[in-house]
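Dear all,

This email documents one entry for the complex benchmark we are building for the journal club exercise. For each entry we list the sequence lines for every component of the assembly. Then comes the predicted three-dimensional structure of the complex as a token string, followed by one or two observations. Please use this as the template for your own entries, and keep the labels exactly as they appear.
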Amino acid sequence: MSALDLELRVPSRRLDASLRLDAGQTLALMGPNGAGKSTLAAALTGTLPGQRHAVQGRLTLGDRVLLDSVRGVRVPTHRRGVGLMAQTPLLFPHLDAVGNVAFGRRGLGERRTTARRAARRWLDRVGAGEFAQARPWQLSGGQAQTVALARALAAEPELLVLDEPLNALDVTAASRMRAVLRELLADQTAILVTHEILDALTLADRTAILHDGRVVAAGPTRELFTRPPNVFAARLAGLNLVQRDGESLAFRAADVVVSAGEPDATAAVRFPVRVLSLEPRGEHALLRGAGAEGIAAGVELHAEVDVQLASGLDTAPGAPLWFGVPAAGLREY
Amino acid sequence: MLGVALLGLAFILVPLLATALRVDWAHFVPLVTDPAALEALGLSLRTAGLSTLVCLLLGVPLAAVLSRAEFPGKRLMRSLVLLPLVVPPVVGGLALLYAFGRFGLLGAPLHALGVEISFSTTAVVLAQAFVSLPYLVLSVEGSLSTTEAGYERVAATLGASPAATWWRVTLPLALPGLLSGTVLAFARCLGEFGATLTFAGNLEGVTRTLPLDIYLVRETDPDSAAALALLLVAVAVLVVGAAHGPWLKPRIRGNAV
């Protein structure tokens, strides 16, 4: 198994990122739209359209140098051993599902029958064995995407790049796909581009956050989101963020204490808010409010409240309430 | 609207119908199985087949470059490729003569080497290929351009070399356009007259294809001309039928995402 080590720059897209990944691990690549996630993914596979010379830096996979712009090394896509699973399945329409999955096996030099046998095994592993003979247009989005996963894995890539693979799927299909990925990515060196923290938490050992083309935070996924090291990670983790004197205050919805009157001294910070909505979440409810005045004016804040407590408060939209946060729940960046 | 459409259809059908009515049906079979006619038909089919092959060998790479590569002058190149479509065939034949004739640009050195092209069967093939090439290029290029380039990118990430991608992905996806382009080019070759007459002449058994034969016998034997004309119409109908047959319909569709 191989380790990934990259230091890539794509000046035309303002990407300048460095990352490392141990063999067999999965790295989630997160960040807002336009942060450079897909550019980085395409730079890894060598498929940046029309920009072949725009990628600079160094990229090594295991003991192979795939890119070294200083020494003029630029391994073409088909010899990189970097697989790709994109947002859309892009199954070859002239081949059935087995033919699609066998495509990369034929490239490995396998004979047709051997390749198709291996392809069937991969289809079974992703739970798409029953679609073996199906043509791409006969498959639903979720089915097609699982076939695309089997196809990418069957080519035995040293590194698999997954570019928002669940994006085009409905909730049920995405959940099934997540389960399949969880199992199959266990020993696969992989980079998963996603904007869903859930994908990162369930699938990725490590997470890197891109912002404006740079890696602004990286670390073990759980650690990154339970103790966000900076405001970028905090924002992705869904924490409330309020600016105060040039720094950012972050706190969890669960740490917010809601009251009708102004909170007492146990609250380190307090915000008058107007209710936006109350959304049931089982035994709890998510109370969304907009800061009414002070440093949180206009900022949307979330509080997790007990249903019992919520029933004792006026939570009609527009109603005035107070959000208080104890010192222990506050993080400052 | 419908009336005008029917008028348009009639415009095409009436002359064909008139041909069928003009034919002396009692003698149809002897007329079209006349040895000279059969020889002309055989020559037509053989040369059209060869010319289509030439079109494929030259046209597919042309179409691939026009649809995939990016370079300055690409629009100009496309216009040039389409030129034989708009140049009168007689002019095309003359141009070929100036290039490959005994005293032509390339013909003179070839003649010195003992290679004679003009007024030979080779000249028939060149004339047909010259006028038919644009049909094939247009059709294949259209088919390649509508194919999502993403498929080729995916093939590369699956380890397929550019050559393997071409054979296993690009070409199969462009197959409908390739087939219809081939059939169109073949049909155009079969009907070629002007360039052939100018460049290859009208030598029985060597360059006298069916259209040339029809033109020749028209003066001396109108019955034979009508019968042969109908024969050519029948072959054309078969070819067009093949080009629009159900097997070329969307067997290949986009992904249902």
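Observations: The longest helix of chain B spans residues 35-68. The domain at 22-243 of chain B is CATH 1.10.3720.10 (MetI-like fold).
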